[in-house]
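If you are new to this repository, start here. Below is one unmodified record pulled from the training split, so you can see the exact layout before writing a loader.
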Amino acid sequence: MSTSVAPLEMVDTGRYPLTDPGSPAWLGTVARTRADLAETGCSVLADFIRPKLREVLRAECAGLQPHAYTEVERVNAYNTAIDAPLPEDHPGRTVMERGNAFVARDHIPASSIISRLYTSPLFQRFVADCFGLPQLYELADPLSGLTLNVIAPGRAHPWHFDTNSYTVSMLTQDAAEGGTFEYCPAIRSADDENFAAVRSVLAGDGGYPVRGLDLRPGDLQLFQGRFALHRVSTVKGTIARHSAIFAYSERPGVVGRAERTRQLFGRVLPVHRAGRTDRGDELLD
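And here is the target side for that same chain:
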């Protein structure tokens, strides 16, 4: 299923004036979003997609679910090899089960709502402005720039960090129960992994605060996921949770590491074997 609706006709531009860059309404929305990001590392733009198109959005993404890589993986929070030698107290030694599944970008039609939005120059300009950046780039990764995250009943997306610095996501189908987005804003920085705090969250000892967030289909979420440990709790009931992930970077040419790509999509391409691209920091993936 697809729609011929232009990218920004999908958006409730009465509330979110993407067609009027630099206007007072644009600047007001950007200011509110920046304030949220400064305070909690996350901002939710509720009802971003027009109500009349939410069922189209849901149906398009639900139709992609058969393309998801559904292999359950054993992972750590950094999506590095779990058999790599690490110190005894390193949080990378905590192994979790990743039950969510990803539909890679090369399975997402260019005609879909999420693809049209992801590649829209005005949408990209708006997102960059919200993050206080002069420009953002689509990931050069042919698999992970735009993805659909599918979490089936009984499964969860465990604690992790994002490869990209700036993540934009949109819930397209909610679970009947469970599937709560949880996160720890700014738990690490570009020059400090803060392993002790990460270890505390993974242990569930209550030593570091965890925030929960209720999202609805059509909401747009802006998130600093490279520095915030985050997860989606176990989905319950009979309905899978679907969310589109729009991944952008401050730098052109960013692709995922081979090990992380294999874990997420069950395959790697020559571009992933070529080695690490510059992310601007030396953090674990």
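Two things worth knowing about this chain: The first strand starts at residue 42 and ends at 45. The radius of gyration is 18 Å.
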